[in-house]
UniProtKB/TrEMBL annotation:
Region of interest: Disordered: 620-670
Pfam families assigned: KAP_NTPase
Transmembrane segments: 197-217
InterPro entries, sorted: KAP_P-loop, NTPase_KAP_P-loop
Protein's UniProt keywords contain Membrane: yes
Alphabetized UniProt keyword annotations: Membrane, Transmembrane, Transmembrane helix
Listed Low complexity bias regions: 638-657
KAP NTPase domain ranges (all copies): 41-411
Keyword Transmembrane on entry: yes
Protein name in the entry: NTPase KAP family P-loop domain-containing protein 1
PANTHER family for the chain: NTPASE KAP FAMILY P-LOOP DOMAIN-CONTAINING PROTEIN 1 (PTHR22674:SF4), NTPASE, KAP FAMILY P-LOOP DOMAIN-CONTAINING 1 (PTHR22674)
Length: 682
């Protein structure tokens, strides 16, 4: 039964917004020093799970684009390494053995074990809990141009392990190494001497020594009678033994200079490789050789090895290539003893669409989500960004701004003011001195403006990551959008200062709130501004103190009728309820404030307003009325004896002209309806 614990954040973290908020976590996680935000909590829980999960495992790291993916992956990598270090320290307290190194003098010992010893999988090895992680990152975007994206995945995996442990050790194992064996009778002994290899090597060396000796004796003066016989036997022994040794050295050198990556690339580039029956079998052999080498290293180092392969950028590739990568994960890299942890960083909606649209998956993956569920064995959807995480990201983005260092500007102003003192000499030209003094004053005034702008920018940006302010709640969870807002605020503040002096009665908080409004709801804001512009052109502009939210409510029904036409533009907007709370309660901008801020708005696409203006102009146009038939007017003209035949048409023409310019009211609609009924009865 899970217990109810409170997270204790580390010193230096942001103060808690809601102290009564609790989480279901363990005590160690709550007191961990690296836990600062909600993202750190999720990453720590995932890292702890991956340290003890059975392999192979495929983690579905589900998140949309720009959702702090790489930052969370880096955090998970650090936490997994920390967890592995702690587990190894606890393990070494209860055992007498120590892990063997593979660098320095340990590398020569590793080569000796590779050649002359065979590893044995024992119960002691299976019970070990200390783990070492090898992190390899595969970016599918870098291999998007190739037809076989899965080959890039396999070659990246092979190359990463080869670089981690060296090419020589892997080449020796490829030629002379032997797969680990399982022997229940030898439960404590982890290594077995390869007697056959040792005897073969001793026989070759003995034959080589004998042959060299016979050749030496054949050249001596005391063996002239048997010189030809010694020379024949010596040459044969030397040739046979040296050829065997040279063949082994040649094989090692070939694997040393021709890596697995090059061999797989040659297989892929071979013409008609798809018709080659043993192609996939050859690739499978290379992967199996890699897993056997990792098993050998596990027993030698006395620790478990886990290869963490982070796959990113897969949702930016073509559907057929996405299918190839998933098939490689399911078939080539999914042996029961493969120590692989795949972290598939994708947007599930995009990946499901790719699987459904792939021609090779017709009938197999008609539902992309079901096929994805058959591949993913550990789903992990990146949660919505919490308050602490959002404040931390905003704080980091603000701290990275260079124009916040206004103290250096103030120092420059003071230094310039200190250098303005002149000497007491009355001689010299007066005009050059006056020009220099005016220039110094202009530069000083400009520096003062720069300092004021920097202070205003700092005040505006501080509102973004102030937990006591509600503004950060309207900032999106997307890291790219955060940077866009932070980068736009200085331009808006400087434009306000240059165009309207002291911000025209607006505060820096209002300026940054306007930037957030334009970034989060560009369609709705453009609609309000276009409605204001149309009413001003018609001469019926609202009062300056009227709220933008009231203007939006007056024209929201008209916007709803244009939903199909503006569907793609409306998709750019955020939550409508937050928009209502933003303009209706937290930031009630007025018409006058919107007009002043509009001239300083640079993060709003004005083409949206122009498109809305054209749509409104077209919708207000009236369809022309069809001309009335003279036959229907004949009874009316005949009934009027005192009127001329064309008097009725002459009297009605101006009336129709006036109706064409006047909007139809309710009374007019009823009149037309009665006249139509009257004509029907006649």
């Amino acid at each position: 039964m899970s217990q109810h614990y409170t997270i204790h954040f580390a010193k230096g973290a942001l103060p808690p917004r809601n102290p009564a908020k609790h989480y279901f976590l363990d005590r160690e996680l709550g007191h961990q020093k690296g836990i600062l935000t909600e993202d750190d909590v999720y990453c720590s829980c995932l890292a702890k799970t991956l340290c003890h999960v059975p392999v192979p495992v495929t983690v579905g790291f589900y998140a949309p684009f720009g959702c702090r993916l790489h930052m969370m992956l880096d955090k998970i990598m650090v936490l997994m390494q920390q967890e592995a270090t702690q587990c190894e320290a606890k393990e070494l307290q209860h055992v007498q053995w120590q892990p063997r190194p593979v660098q320095g003098w340990g590398f020569s010992k590793l080569l000796w074990y590779l050649v002359f010893l065979q590893p044995i999988i024992t119960e002691v090895h299976l019970r070990r809990k200390n783990v070492k992680f090898l992190f390899i990152r595969f970016s599918a975007w870098q291999y998007a141009g190739t037809d076989k994206l899965w080959a890039g995945l396999v070659t990246t995996l092979c190359e990463g392990i080869r670089q981690q442990y060296g090419a020589l050790s892997f080449s020796l194992y490829s030629v002379l190494g032997k797969k680990a064996a399982t022997r229940p009778g030898c439960r404590q002994r982890e290594w077995h001497c390869r007697r056959q290899l040792c005897l073969t090597l001793l026989a070759l060396l003995a034959a080589l020594s004998l042959g060299m000796s016979l050749l030496y004796l054949s050249m001596g003066s005391h063996a002239l009678s048997h010189g030809n016989l010694f020379r024949a036997f010596g040459g044969a022994a030397t040739t046979l033994s040296s050829s065997g040794l040279l063949m082994a050295m040649y094989s090692v050198g070939k694997h040393l200079f021709v890596s697995q990556r090059k061999r797989i690339e040659r297989l892929v580039l071979r013409e008609k490789f798809g018709s080659h029956l043993g192609f996939m079998c050859e690739v499978k052999k290379e992967v199996r050789l890699l897993t056997d080498f990792l098993c050998f290293l596990e027993i030698y180092q006395r620790r478990r090895l886990r290869v963490v392969l982070e796959i990113t950028g897969l949702d930016t590739c073509y559907p057929e290539r996405v299918v190839g990568v998933l098939n490689a994960i399911n078939t080539l890299l999914s042996d029961s003893h493969a120590p692989f942890i795949f972290i598939l960083v994708v947007d599930p909606s995009i990946l499901a669409s790719c699987l459904e649209s792939a021609c090779s998956m017709k009938g197999t993956a008609d539902n992309g989500y079901l096929f994805l569920n058959r591949t993913i064995t550990l789903p992990f959807s990146v949660p919505i960004m919490g308050h602490r995480t959002k404040l931390q990201f905003l704080h980091d983005a603000v701290r990275s701004r260079d124009d916040l260092l206004y103290r250096e500007m103030t120092r420059n102003v003071r230094s310039r003011g200190g250098d303005g003192g002149g000497d007491g000499d009355g001689g010299g030209d007066v005009e050059p001195l006056l020009e220099m003094e005016e220039q110094a004053r202009a530069e000083s005034a400009q520096s003062v403006l720069e300092v004021q702008a920097a202070r205003s920018i700092q005040e505006a940006l501080c509102c973004l990551h102030d937990e006591g302010d509600c503004l950060f709640e309207y900032v999106p969870d997307n890291v790219v959008s955060m940077r866009r807002i932070v980068n736009t605020v200085p331009i808006t503040v400087r434009l306000l200062q240059q165009q309207q002096g002291d911000f025209g009665g607006l505060s820096p908080r209002q300026a940054v709130a306007w930037v957030v409004l334009a970034n989060q709801w560009p369609c709705r804001l453009s609609w309000v501004l276009q409605c204001l512009e149309d009413r001003q052109q018609a001469g019926g502009a609202p009062e300056a103190c009227a709220r933008l939210w009231d203007v939006f409510c007056d024209h929201s029904l008209e916007l709803h009728t244009m939903n199909e036409t503006l569907q793609k533009v409306l998709d750019l907007d955020g939550d409508p309820e937050l928009f209502q709370r933003f303009l209706g309660a937290d930031f009630p901008f007025t018409v006058a404030e919107a007009q002043r801020l509009l001239r300083c708005t640079v993060n709003l696409d004005h083409s949206i307003r122009r498109r809305m203006g054209l749509i409104r102009a077209v919708s207000t146009l009236k369809s022309p009325r069809p001309p009335k038939s003279p036959a229907r007017k004949a009874p009316h003209t005949a009934s009027g004896a005192n009127h001329a035949p064309g008097a009725a048409w002459a009297g009605q023409a101006p009336a129709h002209a006036c109706e064409a310019h006047q909007p139809p009211g309710r009374g007019q609609v009823q009149t037309h309806g009665l006249s139509a009924l009257h004509l029907g009865s006649v």
